[in-house]
Amino acid sequence: MDNDSTNPGQRGAIDARPPDLCKTLPRLMRPPVSRPRPISLAAALAVALPGFSAFSASSAHAQESAGQPLILKSVKQLHQTKRKDARPALALSADRITSDMDQTSTAEGDVQLRYGGMLLKSKSLRYDYPQDLATAEGEVELSQNGAVLRGPKLELFVDKFEGQLQSPTYFFAATGGSGSAKAIHFLGDQRMRADEATYSTCPVSEKGEQDAADAASGKGKRDWELVTSSLNLDFDAGEGVAKNAVVRFLGVPILAAPSLSFPLGDQPKSGLLPPNVNIDNRSGVEYSQPFYWSIAPNRDATITPFVMTRRGPGVDTQFRYLEPGHRGQIDYALLPHDRVTGISRWDLRLNADGDVMPNWTYNAHTERVSDDDYWKDLRSRMLSQTPRLLSTDLRTQRDFSFNWGEMQTYARVQKWQPLQVAETQDRFASPYQRSPQIGVRLQTGADESVLAGYLPTGRRARLEGGLEVEYNRFDLPGGALDSQTQTGERLHMLGHVSLPFSGAAWWLIPKMSINAASYNLDQPIDVTGRRSIGRTIPTFSVDHGWILERNTSLFGNAMRQTLEPRLLYVNTPYRDQSAMPNFDAAPRDYNFDSVFAENQFSGVDRVNDANMLAFGATTRWIEDERGEEQLRLGMVQRYLFRNQQITPDGTPQTHRLSDVVLLASAHLNQAWWTDSTLQLNSADGKVERTVLRLRYSPGPFRTVSASYRLARGQSEQVELAWQWPLFGPDRKSISGGAGCAGAWYGAGRLQYSMRDKRFTDSVIGAEYDSGCWILRVGAERQATGRAETNTRLILQLELVGLSPLGSNALKVLRDNIPGYRSLSSERSAFGTYD
To answer: N vs C: which end of the chain shows fewer Cβ within 10 Å?
Structure first.
């Protein structure tokens, strides 16, 4: 019997939209999208009901509206987008159907009732037309969008989607999870209730819920299971309420809540997040319990009380906001009384960005700590990439566009907090503070792209240029070395004019540059008491290069080979700069790219003299079919036409040829990668610096990498990193499901200093994957001095589909191991968050 929804004369035509079972699985309990949080226990409770929301058409439209390309990804269920003005038809099929016109239809044997995206199967079904009531008995199966519910009997008012499924089991293809309940009550397409519901991702087959049924009847046992006595979901209100929720692991309750509520949509909801546990040799055992506070849709806070066995109690706080044109985050960690040091200790971080008005932006980024030893004792609470040098950076910039190009005006205040140590040999010179920095930049329209290496073809040559005028007040922070005394003001101008020529395979850019600076200092320069000094240094350069291609082959594979020679001539006259301060200049790292720099110093205060030619070439083999680079070889060097007086190491260079830099990288198949750079002293042929790296990754969860680094007279280091199966089922990809057995994986990274003959920053750990839960254990060692280390134990339990519990071992492994991949990455529908 097939009723056509376009014919209003047939009673079988149902007008109401079918309920989307996908809506019954809640979204993540997360704050605004700027930083997703792990799934809380509360949010995970709702997976004990059918459905899972897939990628929606609205999100695709949002991507298109934002000008972003659509990103396709595989899903485990088909999401059908419904037109608002379309009404689905009701279709009934079976081995035998008997009907009483406009009253009832009875179907027996392989019964299927379709309504939109919903499919109902059973051995027998009776449909009452006047009441719009479907009563199904015998192996009832209700499915939609990858969610499958099974039970002995279902009564459902189809149009209203009201009814009850008795003793159901359920399975979700999207998560691989399943469970059972005493009954599910459908209270309309926006509300439902489940009695004595359970959920777990422990192995089951996609064909049915035999494992779940066995567990419910006592015949089977799952490693972990979430149980709740009652679960109410109200999608109109966007809220779910669970009663007596308990998570059991290996039969032992590990998390429990008598009553809790959680969000069912994008709006986050206040509540407890999973606890964290950390262990290290400086603070002992630390336990913390985060509480998430949803202040408003665009503001939230996280308050995390903690206690350390050695140092005492404290609290971590975080506040975030997202306003039109403004966004930011404030973090404050407080240890009121450290029992080890006897002082109050804190860390304060502020990050804010926004728009004052169109084309006028501001940024504020700062981190400050209470004392010099904070980076040693409480480093996990710091976010700075340089934990011994903390920055405060406040800046604003306004952009202007004109027919001839662009102008930028900017102002900045930059402060530093150096964290010094008692050992003299480990103290360092602090960078200068800018109090303030004010400037303006002018840039012609196409100059920036030409000088960045983009090659506009078919252009007519025209003069292009740029100008920067800037004032700085330089002073020193507290904690600077005693030898650092000079402070003062600088006004500088940087300018250049170029005349770029280019074709389809070449470019030629002659350029004139100028670096002028005037100083007004706080301390005398010489015995005469002079405090003012200035200089102007011009530079002439010509940059020329080619990109040549030919078809060839490599190891029997069709390739496209390139040859990319480049020449750079630079002429800068010598100017004595020995009496001038150095506020911001530093030697550039000598590498394959910096060889072609006009100035061997960054910043403004130092400009090397030069009459030299930088030359080199790169050749690449690129696979035709996939466009992947398979092999790259390169060489660069400099030739001096006269001796160079101002050099990065302070020693005049009289040898005509500079050090030569050699580059090689290869990716000859999908498993092997290697790359290396080598710097050879052209005078004695000795190796000055080298980096050798090798990586082998034959498949998922299998990667080994090794590296060797040498800087002559400074450091020599070897490193080994890996993620590899130790023993257990030999699987290249773990996807969960029936038959998954436990497997052990090793993961870690070892760094060894051959110069100091000791291990430095290292991580070593092991992971056990049971298929539905993962245990990670290990240790992390960080060097905090020549003879000091901080050793931290990491322990984390991840119940696939729920939040990880314990310390954040997953982030430690990801940050330290090249190519590391989470064992649950292909099974958790929610993803795993750091």
So the answer is: C
- The answer on pLDDT for 303 being more than 50 is yes
Contact 572, 538 (CB under 8 A): yes
pLDDT at 789: 80
Give the Cα separation of 662 and 595 in Å (integer).
Answer: 12
Q: Print burial letters for 44-61: b (CB count within 10 Å at least 16), e (below 16).
A: bbbbbbbbbbbeeeeeee
Cβ atoms of 52 and 829 within 8 Å: the answer is yes
State the greatest distance between any 2 C-alpha atoms of the chain, in Å, as a whole number. 116
Band (pLDDT 50/70/90 cuts) for residue 47 is very low
Query: How many CA within 13 A on the CB side of residue 441?
Result: 14
pLDDT tens for 433-492 read 999 999 999 998 754 444 444 444 445 567 899 999 999 999 999 989 988 999 999 999
**Predicted structure pTM score:** 0.77
Count of positions (residues) in the chain:
834
Structure tokens at 671: 């498993």
Q: How many CB atoms lie within 10 A of CB 588?
A: 17
Instruction: Give the integer Cα–Cα distance in Å for 126 and 118.
Output: 17
Q: Which helix (H) or strand (E) holds 73?
A: none
Amino acid identity for residue 123 in this structure: K
Tokens of 348: 């304060």
In terms of DSSP H, where are the helices of 488-609? none
Report how far apart, in Å, the C-alpha atoms of 813 and of each of 214, 442, 722, 723, 755 are. 37, 45, 10, 9, 26
Cα 192 to the center of its chain, rounded Å: 37
CB-based burial, 664-701: b 16+ in 10 Å, e otherwise: ebbbeeeeebebbbbbbbbeeeeebbbebbebbbeeeb
Find the mean pLDDT for residues 309-315: 96
